[in-house]
Amino acid sequence: MTWKMVATCPEESKLILAQEGEILGAKVEKLGFRAVYFEVPDLEAFYKFHLQLTTASHLFWIIKEFAAKDDRMLFSQVQRIKWRELFDPAKTFRIDAYISNHPEWTPPELSKRTRQAMQEHFQHHGLPIPHADVEDPDVLICIWLEKGRATVSIRTSGDTLHKRGYRLPGHMAPLKETVAATLLRVLEYDGSRPLYDPMCGSGTIVIEAAMMALGKACLIHRKKNGFGFERLKNFDRTLWQRVQTELREGKKTELLHPIYASDVSEDSVTLTRETALRARVERYLTCSAENFFDTKAPCESGLLVSNLPYGDRLQAAEEMPVFYEKIGDHLKKAYKGWTAALLVSAESPWKSIGLKPTRKIPLVNGSIPVLLLVYEIY
Ligand SMILES: C[S@@+](CC[C@H](N)C(=O)[O-])C[C@H]1O[C@@H](n2cnc3c(N)ncnc32)[C@H](O)[C@@H]1O
Predict the structure, then answer these.
(1) What confidence tens digit (pLDDT) does each residue in 120-179 have?
(2) Separation CA 34–CA 9 (nearest Å)
(3) Where does 177-215+226-376 sit in CATH, by number?
(4) CA of 316 to the centre of ligand 1 (A)
(5) Region 3-155: CATH code
(6) Ligand 1 within 6 A of 265 CB?
C-alpha cells in the first residue's frame, strides 16, 4: 500500500523539502502553499520518512479526498471513512479545520460537522463515541476545504518535527532545528568539507550538521509515543523497531572532515556540549570558548556557517553596523579560502558586512524573515 502524505514547511523552503523527500525515496505529487504532497511506497518508507526528514515542520497522512459542495456531501463522505479501523474509540481526538475560497463555511462549523459525522460512524457500528480533547489529543485529524474539495488527514508527525528530542533549555535565541537543517541543505553540506560555527549558541547548526554528515536519522531520539502514527490501529510496532535498529546500525561511525563550534559565551559552549551529548554526537564536535574576532581558521578551507546575533541582547541596535563591519573585516583577514554563510535577520544592517554575497537566500526562522548570505572569501 502506498501512503499519500502532506509535509508542511515555510513557503520559502518547500523546494528544499521536495528535494529531500525525493532523496528519501518518496514521489513528489505536487507543491502546495507551505506544503509538499508526497507519495511514500510502503509502511517501512513511511516510518523512515518520519525519522529522517530534516526540513519538514509536520507530516500528515491523507485518508480521503472528495468533492464537498454542500453539507450533505461533506457529512456523508466523512461518515463513510472507516474511522473504526483507524483508531480505537478510547482515544481522544481533535479536528483542525482549514478553509480556502469557501465562504459558506467557517472553520469552527466545518470542524463541528466533521466531528459529528465521525462520531456518528462509531455509533452506527455500535461502538463507544470517542471524546474530543482540544489541548492534548491522541489523534489529530485535519480537514482542508478548498474550492469544493475536501482533504481529510491525520497528523502522523505528532508534535512539530523541529522537536527532535535532544534540545535543552538555556539559550535565548536558538535556531529552529528545521531551519538549521534547511540552510545546511541549501549549502549542499554533506560532510565532505570541514564546517565551523564560530557563534554556535546552543549548537543547533553543528549538531544538525554532524547528524547529516553521519547519515544519522534526526528524529531517532524522540520518546516512545511521540509520533502521531504510534496511536493508530495500524501501528506496526515490530516493523517500527526494526526500522529504528536498521537506521541506528546504518549510520557512519566517523566523520570525513571535522566540525568545529565556538562562542564568546562559556555558558553557550557548555550548552552546546551538553546538547550534543543528548544528540549523541558530542565526540564528533570540537568546541571552545572564543571571541570570533580572535579566532583563526581551524584549517585551510571549509564552510563557516553561523546565525549572527540579532542585536537585541548582546549588542545595542546602534552598535550592530559596527559589529557587522568587524565580522566582514575578520572574515577577509582570517578566512581566506573559506565559504562563509551567515544567517541574518532581513532587517539587520547586513550590508555593513561590506562583502558582496554570491548568494542571498530568503528563509524564515519561526516568524522572523531571515537571509542566508553566502560569501566566497578570497
Ligand atoms: C543568535 S545566537 C546563535 C544561536 C545558535 N545558532 C543556536 O541555535 O543556538 C548568536 C550567538 O553569537 C554569540 N556571539 C555574539 N558575539 C560574539 C562574538 N564576538 N564571538 C563569538 N560569539 C559571539 C552569542 O553568544 C550567541 O550565542
Answers:
(1) 999 999 999 999 999 999 999 999 999 889 999 999 999 999 999 999 888 888 999 999
(2) 5
(3) 3.40.50.150
(4) 15
(5) 3.30.2130.30
(6) yes
